[in-house]
Amino acid sequence: MHEGCLFCEYEKFEIVMENDLSFAIRDKYPVTELHTLILSKQHYETVFDLPTNELVSIVELAKLCRGEILKQDPSVKGFNFGSNSGKTAGQKIAHVHFHLIPRREGDLEPPPAV
Q1: What is the mean pLDDT of each run of 10 residues along the chain (114 residues)?
Q2: d(CA 40, CA 18)
Q3: Cα(89)–Cα(102) distance, integer angstroms
Q4: Fold topology of 6-104
Q5: Catalytic residue among 43, 95, 97, 99
Q6: What is the pLDDT of residue 43?
Q7: 97 carries an active-site annotation
Q8: Is the dihedral of CA 1, 18, 44, 93 positive or negative?
């Protein structure tokens, strides 16, 4: 636990799914309905700081969350999945987290290819 880190106090969140090393919550400011954040239970600032087993844990949990989202909403036809690393890249909280954003036909413009 890292003092002052919002995401380190994961017990305060409504957890939608978890495993030994990771947990998932709904995004407070969703891009689309069922937008989910997947986070490490330990404090690491970015994806590049994660040990391999923690990264694997997050990806495994993302797959399970994806399956549940597809069950809940069959209109979901795709996903954006990624992590912003560093303030310049848009990371607002310095605790690694991945966005799993369900996409439906015609919901938003696709993100630009970079």
Answers
A1: 81 92 96 97 95 97 98 96 93 94 90 65
A2: 10
A3: 21
A4: HIT family, subunit A (3.30.428)
A5: 97
A6: 95
A7: yes
A8: negative
